[in-house]
Amino acid sequence: MGFIQSFSSTSFFDTLISYGGAFLLGTLIGAERQYRQRTAGLRTNALVALGASAFVDLAQRLTGNDGAVRVLAYVVSGIGFLGAGVIMKEGMNVRGLNTAATLWCSAAVGACAGTDMAAEAAALTVFVVAGNTLLRPLVNAINRIPLGGGGLEATYSVMVTTAADKADTLRDTLVDHLELMRYPSAETEILERPDDTVEIRARLVSTGAIDTDLDAIVAHLERDHDVTHASWEVQTQD
């Protein structure tokens, strides 16, 4: 009887639109993360957006805008615990910060959808996807700019991601390709990832590699070998 008395087709349809919008927009954000084989992929981002939408929508229906504002505060703080789970420290490097930030943004998208701000949720989704895609070439370009000063030492690394059962073979292939281009590796390491893939990282002996050479190496590996993603980076230190 309680359900019959409290049910409103108008409110239910409004909630359905909020859920559907949050799910769709969260899926769009997660698709990019899934394509790049990140820890939190399509399903995680879609569920985060959907969950945030559900909590905010429920609070708004029960207690109005004041209740929704209070729940929003809990969503903002609560998503931090989920984001912390995808951040991993590997030696001196910290991985997963961008993925954690994307989860935070997915929750914001869901919260907008839950408060019936569909246009704002869609606009935020566009900005999040743009930040994860359009800014990537700019980040790579900035990282490759040589820093002035003779006291700086550069360390080049080439990274490839592949299936776990192909790790040993691909590591040998990576080392052979680097040596063929006269960039011998000082060391290689295989880092396990939670999605049954591994990242093979080769640190080069050279401290003055040419960008186009490394671009050619990673492009060849990604095109002609069992590699889901290949990239390179340079780190400088005093």
TrEMBL record:
Residues 156-232 form the MgtC-like C-terminal domain. It is found in: Cell inner membrane; Cell membrane. Belongs to the MgtC/SapB family. This is Protein MgtC. Virulence factor required for growth in low Mg(2+) medium and for intramacrophage survival. May be involved in regulating membrane potential by activating Na(+)/K(+)-ATPase. It is a multi-pass membrane protein. Keywords: Cell inner membrane, Cell membrane, Membrane, Transmembrane, Transmembrane helix. Residues 22-139 form the MgtC/SapB/SrpB/YhiD N-terminal domain. It comes from Rhizosaccharibacter radicis. The chain crosses the membrane at residues 12-30, 71-88. Its main location: membrane.
